[in-house]
Write a structure and sequence with these properties.
Elements lengths: L2 E4 L9 E4 H7 L5 H6 L6 E3 L34 E2 L4 H7 L2 E2 L2 E6 L6 H14 L4 E5 L6 H6 L7 E5 L15 H19 L4 E5 L5 H4 L4 H11 L5 E6 L10 E5 L3 E7 L15 E15 L9 E8 L5
Parallel strand pairs: 6-10, 6-11, 7-8, 7-9, 9-10
Antiparallel strand pairs: 1-2, 1-3, 4-5, 11-13, 12-13, 13-14
Length: 313
């Protein structure tokens, strides 16, 4: 079956392709008198067996030489997934994707630090070197060690004041200065490579400061990590990377999972009050808000997992 290319005066340079058998009904041929008054260029019919055509039934055009047909495009392989350190999260998302940006969002006391420490602990147990870029200098090394993180494999970048506050320009506040340090450190770390997980902790920054990060910066981070085996993790109060993140996990408010009454010490000079209780665990709610890993619409899913305190044994 052959095809015809018809150019209309309303859309010059934009050909419409019809079957020759249907061309007469769609675009009737002009009569002899119309040929002398119509200023349109002559029509050209290209056969399916035209030897110079790049594809059957199309018009040969040097501008199309570099265009690859959709049928010849290679399918992008799915990224490798690694454990997040929390079995319930792995069951919800399949783990954390390498070569991608993952966002973990939640308000204060939502469990975002618990999930961050679990991911770092899982990565260091795999023998990988990790980086935590801490925008607010909020990490407690003892809590990190109690969570199972091998501190010898962790690079902790503390984004604090590198000079006295009075020397900083009056219009640059503390949050903006720390945010600038975090972005510079992230650029250097992504460019250097060699890390299994790079975590950017923006959870304690004011939302208005974190939202000032342009989308072009997140796009640059995503492009820098997409051909590496690195897991790029951003911990925030709310999603700010937009479509640049491949995975978005929202954490809800935590609930008390257990509590234990403090026993009265024997021969103590300062006895514990009878109403005192010791927190032993928390229940954390997690929701898969977005996933761009399987090219399918993601249905909202929610799970709950428990977190045990270090002193609960």
């Amino acid at each position: 079956m052959s095809s015809a290319v018809v150019s209309t005066s309303a859309a010059q340079g934009r050909p419409f392709v019809f079957d020759v058998e249907d061309a007469a009904g769609v675009c009737p041929q002009p009569t002899g008198a119309e040929l002398f008054t119509d200023a349109r260029p002559p029509q050209r019919v290209v056969s399916a067996n035209y030897p110079g055509a790049p594809f059957p039934g199309t018009l040969k055009d040097a501008r199309l030489a570099g265009v690859t047909s959709a049928s010849r495009l290679a399918v992008t392989p799915a990224p490798e997934m690694v454990s997040s350190g929390v079995a319930a999260i792995d069951g919800l998302t399949g783990g954390l994707p390498r070569s991608c940006l993952t966002e973990i969002c939640g308000t204060a006391s939502s469990g975002r630090t618990t999930l961050l420490l679990a991911a770092l602990a899982a990565a260091t147990r795999r023998g990988e070197f990790c980086v935590l870029v801490d925008a607010s200098d909020a990490l407690d090394p003892q809590s990190a060690a109690d969570a199972g993180i091998e501190l010898d494999r962790l690079l902790w970048v503390r984004c604090g004041e590198s000079q006295p506050a009075q020397r900083i320009h009056v219009q640059r506040n503390h949050a903006d200065h720390n945010l600038e340090q975090l972005l510079r450190a992230a650029d250097l770390l992504l460019e250097s490579g060699g890390f299994g997980l790079i975590a950017l902790d923006l959870g304690d920054l004011p939302p208005q400061a974190a939202r000032r990060i342009p989308l072009t910066t997140w796009f640059r981070f995503r492009r820098a990590v997409e051909h590496t085996p690195t897991v790029l993790l951003a911990v925030e109060r709310q999603s700010i990377a937009g479509s640049c993140s491949s995975l978005l996990i929202n954490l809800g408010q935590m609930k008390l999972a257990g509590k234990r009454v403090i026993e009265q010490p024997i021969n103590s000079q300062f006895p514990a009050p009878t109403h005192a209780q010791l927190l032993t665990g928390l229940e954390i709610t997690a929701e898969l808000a977005r996933s761009r890993l399987d090219r399918k619409p993601v249905r909202s899913a929610e799970i709950t997992f428990a977190s045990k305190t270090a002193w609960a044994g």
